[in-house]
Amino acid sequence: MAHQAPEPRGAVVVPNWNGEKYLAACLESLEGQTRRPHIIVVDNGSVDGSVALVEQKFPGVELVRLPKNTGFTGGVNAGIQRATEAGQPFVALLNNDAVAAPGWFAALVHELEQHPDVGIAAAKITDFSGRHLDSTGEFYTIWGLAFARGRGESNLSKYDNSPEIFAASGGASILRTKMLEETGSFDNTFFAYYEDVDLSFRAQLAGWKIRFVPGATVRHRIGATSGKIRGFTTYQTLKNLPLLCLKNVPGPLLPAVLPRLWLAHTAFFWSAAARGQAGAALKGLAMAYLLTPRALAKRLHIQRSRRVPVAYIRGAIVHSLPPDAGRLQKLVHPLSRKPHEDRP
């Protein structure tokens, strides 16, 4: 689908895989933004009516068609590349099963325009009913685990005055293309899950700040895409958590993180097996080992390019288990503070 080069006003990339059921609502919300972005839908080899929907009902939307499903990372990277080639200074991301409030894009762009040291800005994501939080920023812990701040909480404004975060959810955030020139884009080996924390970690190491923008709100149909494939979350989690750690955690912090991650990873594996997902768990574990040499090679470049002291990263991560890791908390209590002792 041919398009003239859009003016550099910022772009929004929407990755899509068989999302016809929800895609129209997503695109309508983007076309209704107070600051109108250049909208790019990247279709990951859908076999439903997604492509026809975009072509027939959204002629102003640029459609990038990929021949197969390349995951969240592959789809988003293709859109980011298109936006960068068009000279866009900012690229926002929005899940195809999410709906953005009218001022969402304007609020995110304003944050980057006002703070040149901020490389990524995160939106406030709620469940689709708008009654509970889904994410107000992501955090990384001394256990090598990541979690979404506020998930499931009903006080929607609880974190509005806490803008400093460790990472931003890829489901509704904005990236500065100048930052991406330094850090690179999403790591395709992740495919989906924790790829956003990985990019944010690299940004932190490179000296970029990441902030939460409470005025940029999105309602998200949680699990509408990932829930289509049984064992998908189990496989990606067991595969990607070790890669996230091996690539990004500075050397002096590894003695504290690696043993804890090993315990948590092992507990997740047996928990998945008990739920009847032993196959997915074994596959994830095997792929983590197979991808380790590649992760270590990437680590060399990432750590050599680090611009912040180790003390900065030590202070930025959470020194306890995620608030929702209740079962793991009981299992490893002697090695962990209680969640309330270090909650962002």
Description:
The protein is α/β, with parallel strands linked by helices and 344 residues long. It has eleven helices and eleven strands. It has helices spanning 20-31, 50-57, 71-85, 104-114, 177-183, 195-205, 232-248, 254-274, 278-304, 310-316, 326-331; strands spanning 11-16, 38-44, 62-66, 90-94, 98-100, 118-127, 133-135, 138-140, 146-148, 172-176, 209-220. The strands form two sheets. Strands 1, 2, 3, 4, 5, 6, 7, 10 and 11 form a nine-stranded mixed sheet that branches. Helix 2 links the parallel strand 2 (38-44) and strand 3. Helix 1 (20-31) runs parallel beside helix 2 and helix 7 packs parallel to helix 9 (278-304). The longest helix has 27 residues, at 278-304. The model has no long low-confidence stretch (mean pLDDT 93).
Distance between the termini: 45 Å
Oligomer: single chain
Q: Average the pLDDT over all residues and give the rounded result.
A: 93
Strand content: 15-25%
Helix content: 40-55%
Low-confidence parts: none
Radius of gyration from the alpha-carbon trace, in angstroms: 19 Å
Number of helices: 11
**Strand count:** 11
What structural category arises from helix and sheet content?
Answer: alpha/beta
Write a compact overview of the structure shown.
It is built from 11 helices and 11 strands. Strands 1, 2, 3, 4, 5, 6, 7, 10 and 11 form a 9-stranded mixed β-sheet that branches. Strands 8-9 form a two-stranded antiparallel ribbon.
